Structure to design on (269 residues):
């Protein structure tokens, strides 16, 4: 194979791998940020659960104070009842007592409800705290992994950069310049030509050019997309099986060549 072509194929692999690694390195801080957002959400959940419990306690204290106030009112009304003059006044006082008693019962019901609610709120808090504990360990692990991966990627990138410049020094100026131009414009530069077609843009290659490409002896560019073309004999589709076997024997040259492939090494193109 043409030396420049072989090196450019290598160079493209290096360039693609470097691009992939650079993207990965660039994406890692974002991944860590995402992990930390998840952690912050769990911390937020804990804060909400704590606030709910505090609100619950404050409400219970309020109802307890209401009960006390009601009980004091009842004591006061009962005290007044001994000194009332009329039945009407007495009935009015008893009505007040009943009202206060009802208020106390309502407050007691509310406290009971709040205590039931508190149980589930405490459960939610415990679950959120346990979840955070697990998550925190996981986050540290993921962050450590991201750091390790970044360091590995950067080491690989440095190695590839060295390999890249070595490859580039080995390539003749003009094909190298063409390579750079196409790489800037397209995602791939050196592509396989198969079945007389450019495998990137699928334009049909003229027979004479196709013969040139098949030798891999010189750099041929696709007339349509400008990419450099190489030929890989391994991709050649197997010759269609010839239906009548007798006919195959009538074409000994081809048939034999095919039969020999397993025993004899395939001839190098
Ligand atoms: Zn093409």
């Amino acid at each position: 194979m043409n030396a420049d072509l072989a090196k450019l194929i290598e160079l493209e692999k290096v360039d693609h791998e470097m691009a992939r690694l650079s993207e990965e390195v660039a994406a890692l801080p974002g991944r860590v940020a995402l992990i930390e957002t998840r952690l912050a959400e769990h911390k937020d959940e804990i804060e909400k659960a704590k606030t709910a419990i505090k609100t619950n306690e404050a409400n219970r204290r309020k109802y307890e104070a209401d009960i006390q106030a009601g009980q004091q009112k009842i004591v006061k009304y009962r005290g007044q009842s001994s000194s009332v003059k009329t039945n009407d006044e007495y009935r009015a006082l008893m009505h007040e007592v009943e009202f206060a008693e009802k208020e106390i019962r309502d407050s007691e019901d509310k406290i009971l409800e709040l205590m039931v609610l508190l149980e589930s709120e405490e459960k939610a808090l415990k679950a959120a705290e346990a979840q955070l504990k697990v998550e925190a360990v996981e986050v540290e692990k993921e962050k450590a992994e991201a750091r390790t991966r970044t360091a590995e990627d950067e080491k690989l990138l440095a190695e590839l950069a060295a390999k890249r410049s070595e490859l580039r020094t080995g390539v003749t100026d003009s094909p190298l310049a063409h390579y750079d131009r196409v790489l800037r414009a397209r995602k791939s530069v050196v592509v396989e030509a198969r079945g007389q077609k450019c495998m990137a843009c699928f334009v049909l290659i003229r027979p004479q050019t196709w013969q040139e490409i098949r030798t891999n002896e010189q750099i041929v560019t696709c007339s349509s997309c400008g990419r450099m073309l190489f030929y890989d004999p391994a991709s050649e589709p197997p010759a269609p099986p010839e239906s009548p076997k007798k006919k195959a024997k009538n074409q000994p040259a081809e048939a034999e060549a095919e039969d020999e492939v397993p025993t004899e090494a395939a001839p190098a193109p």
